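Quick entry between incubations.
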Amino acid sequence: MALLALMLVVAACSNSGEKSDGDKKDKGGQASGQVEIFSWWTGAGEEDGLLALIDLFEDEHPDISVENAAVAGGAGTNAKAVLATRMQGNDPPSTFQVHGGEELNKSWVAADKMEPLNDLYEENDWMDKFPEDLIDLVSDDGNIYSVPVNIHRGNPIFYNKKVFEDNGIDVPTTMDEFFAAADKLQEAGITPLALGDKESWTATQIFENVLAAELGVDDYNKLFAGDIAFDDERVVKAAETFGKMLDYINEDHASRNWQDSAQLVASGDAAMINMGDWAVGYFVNDLDLETNVDYGYFTFPGTEGDFGVITDTFGLPKGVDNVDDVKKFLTVLGSVEGQDAFNPLKGSIPARVDADPSKYNDYGKDTIEDFKESRLYPSLAHGSAASEGFLTKANQAVNIFVTQRNVDNFIQALQNAAPDM
Ligand code: GAL
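Done. Structure below.
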């Protein structure tokens, strides 16, 4: 990450902001009449919403062609590296997926790579259409740097309804109840908790939710602000609880990605999974499951009333030549129609407060209501709580912990990484 930061600074210094026509042709996606959209939404459970948004944009702007430059890998595992290389080479995509919070601010705004979008917000009368907290997450020093397309929730646990019914399991509301249910399921030969940590963010996401449960929202935020140390006894307790949860996962977790692990719940081989609600898009659109019939959901025990928030946003990189076209795309993405085309398929809820809840399934409707009443905690695994530098190290520490299960080493690794936050 130090290297990445250095390369970003060098790239920022050498960026004249001008491109020759040759550059335009070679690099593509930048010339007027084209918009290149960079994301990690490919394939199962990920791409449906994006394609619906692109369709809407193409209907409204038939003169602008869209290049869908998506790079596979959940949570941006591969896309972020490709993006970093392009940004360093002064070859930014027209617009790219970036999480609100530190991923946007510490990686790209701090390197002076993004254009402020305050004028776009004013023109579209958006200031009171997005929740203030969300605008804060995409702002720095009074400037707004991206447009949120959605709000995902990171602290649901999805479960197979039939498996719960057949085994006489009630929805757990505390960690003790969760472990009692897990024991019962394990005795019945069912994997209690599905995990696919081929990409380690899935395990990091479980850990962040245990942290929120142990610390509560205020202290969770203090932890990531550096005001509470990682050797705080509640963080140690969270690590122990996280470790205990790992007693209940599928053996082949390290060879599965998030879709493969969610599939275990869909098929009934596993009972539960803690996954962001992109799993809803996957269950409903790809696997044809019915909400509250085939799969149900409950809040990660200990985080009731709290909302682990993840927001996918898109901004305007400095140095692109097709500024007007990008702004047209961002305008569609930030519109009620855009959000209501994208989110019902993606499993997320609209970032706008005035979208149409009737377009969403029961999970979406519940989540829209919960969002209004909940306290928000930004996701670590999805880039909002801490810098990419810290996240990379936290993912490594989690990955080692999943196999070694040494709490002291885990806490030490997090402490060592803390200065990078
Ligand atoms: C998150 C992203 C979601 C979803 C998920 C799995 O980081 O915010 O929209 O794509 O990764 O890939």
